[in-house]
């Protein structure tokens, strides 16, 4: 033991373990490069790999679901655009059909049977073309960017629930096909449109549930 009254005594180490210095371990190794530094990483919109959290988004992670009012506004805008587009196509078809019949009648006084048949075929063709154009309107932009023109105007988009990416063309087609099918069910269209008001946790309409999509703020 060290006695302060006796000179030239070597200092002796006490019973405590030495503190870490240069070249001495300082405790458990801390995580460095290549070592996990915290909780597991998340995929998609903050969800552990395999799906979305069962929680309303906007609380630190996840997408923010589109409001029902925004969805209604996009629906009305898209409906107006499609109506004008279909109307224009049909009008062109009717005018083309009428021109053929009128040209036939101008030479004989009465339209020929062939001109009448041709006029009907042209009219039907333009009606079918209008229907195809309306389907294209709801499928191609959604599969490419997740949004129709109306949805872009109000700042919302459609994504797959499991990936967070725009739906495929098949899923987009199934989505609009479900909308059309619900229109043949009594009050089906109304029920489908109102469903996001009470659906939890993802605020999905029935046509969203059919193909696994959600509508979020863009």
Could you please describe the fold and organization of this structure?
This protein has a two-stranded antiparallel sheet with strand order 1-2. The protein is built from six helices and two strands. The model is unreliable at 31-36 and 38-60 (pLDDT under 50). With 218 residues, it is mainly α. The protein is elongated and about 70 Å long. It has a domain at 68-217. Helix 1 (68-108) runs antiparallel to helix 2 and helix 2 packs across helix 4 (169-182). InterPro entries: Pra-immunoreactive (IPR051791), RDD (IPR010432).
Topology (elements, then pairings):
Blueprint (H helix, E strand, L loop, with lengths): L67 H41 L4 H33 L3 H6 L1 E5 L8 H14 L5 H7 L11 H6 L1 E5 L1
Antiparallel strand pairs: 1-2
Helix pairs in contact: 1-2, 2-4
Ranges where pLDDT stays below 50 over 5 or more residues in a row are 31-36, 38-60
Task: Please trace the helix and strand order, writing H or E for each element.
Answer: HHHEHHHE
Number of helices: 6
Strand order of the largest sheet: 1-2
Overall body shape: elongated
- Compute the CA-based radius of gyration: 34 Å
Oligomeric status: single chain
Largest sheet: 2 strands, antiparallel
Please state roughly what percent of the residues sit in beta strands, choosing from under 5%, 5-15%, 15-25%, 25-35%, 35-45% or over 45%.
Answer: under 5%
Helix content: 40-55%
Q: What is the total tally of β strands?
A: 2
Mean pLDDT: 79
Alpha-beta content class? mainly alpha
For the termini, the CA-CA separation is 76 Å
Region (Disordered): 1-49
Organism: Murinocardiopsis flavida
GO cellular component, one term: plasma membrane
Main location: membrane
């Amino acid at each position: 033991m060290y006695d302060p009254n006796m000179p030239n005594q070597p200092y002796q180490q006490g019973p405590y373990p030495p503190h870490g210095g240069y070249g001495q371990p300082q405790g458990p190794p801390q995580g460095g490069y290549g070592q996990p530094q915290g909780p597991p990483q998340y995929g998609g919109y903050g969800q552990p790999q395999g799906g979305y959290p069962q929680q309303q988004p906007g609380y630190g992670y996840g997408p923010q679901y589109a409001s029902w009012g925004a969805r209604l506004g996009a629906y009305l805008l898209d409906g107006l655009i499609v109506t004008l587009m279909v109307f224009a196509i049909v009008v062109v078809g009717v005018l083309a059909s009428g021109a053929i019949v009128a040209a036939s009648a101008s030479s004989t006084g009465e339209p020929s049977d062939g001109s009448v048949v041709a006029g009907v075929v042209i009219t039907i063709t333009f009606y079918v073309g209008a229907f195809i154009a309306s389907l294209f309107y709801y499928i191609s932009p959604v599969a490419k960017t997740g949004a129709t023109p109306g949805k872009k105007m109000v700042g919302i988009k459609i994504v797959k629930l499991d990936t967070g990416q725009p739906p495929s063309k098949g899923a987009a087609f199934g989505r609009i096909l479900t909308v059309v099918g619900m229109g043949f069910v009594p009050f089906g269209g109304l029920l489908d449109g109102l469903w996001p008001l009470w659906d939890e946790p993802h605020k999905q309409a029935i046509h969203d549930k059919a193909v696994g999509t959600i509508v979020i703020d863009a």
